[in-house]
């Protein structure tokens, strides 16, 4: 039984000046969902890194597009950044992803891996799929229930 969610998909030209549009969109989505300012900043940095890697490494001469998909759940936000340029099914891709493993041979990891390190540090879950391009699938959970439970524990 799958949980209901809202789905938003955007495609941008593989050019650096369009990444700001994704950051603004993501900020609006995450704010509406109830993420904190710091969580929104983490989401923006991680998503920007994934988009920048796609823009810099996926296409020659910035000829192509990057697809950014958002799955809005009650308890989390899932962000998928894909540089294949081809349309794909969000649910199908999510089911086919495995966890990222150290040493995985993905193009942008060879650039020093700092972008991936940032993404993994800032997001709760990161999965990478390499098939006709690279797809980075990131999850950030809404922590408000846990924070409320911790606050109650501390006050007793």
UniProtKB/TrEMBL annotation:
SUPFAM superfamilies: ATPase domain of HSP90 chaperone/DNA topoisomerase II/histidine kinase
Entry EC number(s): 2.7.11.1
Reaction catalysis annotation: L-seryl-[protein] + ATP = O-phospho-L-seryl-[protein] + ADP + H(+); L-threonyl-[protein] + ATP = O-phospho-L-threonyl-[protein] + ADP + H(+)
Keyword list, A-Z: ATP-binding, Kinase, Nucleotide-binding, Serine/threonine-protein kinase, Transferase
Keyword Acetylation tagged: no
One MF annotation (Gene Ontology) recorded for this entry: sigma factor antagonist activity
UniProt keyword Transport present: no
Domain Histidine kinase/HSP90-like ATPase: 12-140
Family the UniProt entry places it in: Belongs to the anti-sigma-factor family.
Function: Negative regulator of sigma-B activity. Phosphorylates and inactivates its specific antagonist protein, RsbV. Upon phosphorylation of RsbV, RsbW is released and binds to sigma-B, thereby blocking its ability to form an RNA polymerase holoenzyme (E-sigma-B).
Protein name: Serine-protein kinase RsbW
Gene that encodes the chain: rsbW
């Amino acid at each position: 039984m799958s949980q209901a969610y809202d789905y938003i998909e955007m495609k941008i030209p593989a050019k650096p000046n369009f990444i700001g549009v994704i950051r603004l969109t993501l900020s609006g989505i995450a704010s509406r969902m109830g993420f904190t300012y710091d969580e929104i900043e983490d989401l923006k940095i991680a998503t920007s890194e994934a988009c920048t890697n796609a823009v810099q490494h996926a296409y020659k001469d910035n000829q192509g597009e990057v697809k950014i998909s958002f799955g809005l759940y009650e308890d989390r936000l899932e962000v998928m950044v894909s540089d294949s340029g081809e349309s794909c099914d969000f649910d199908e891709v999510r089911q086919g992803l495995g966890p990222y493993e150290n040493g995985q041979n993905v193009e942008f990891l060879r650039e020093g891996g700092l972008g991936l390190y940032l993404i993994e540090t800032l997001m709760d879950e990161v999965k990478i799929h390499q098939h006709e391009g690279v797809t980075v699938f990131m999850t950030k959970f809404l922590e408000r229930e846990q924070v409320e439970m911790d606050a109650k524990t501390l006050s007793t």
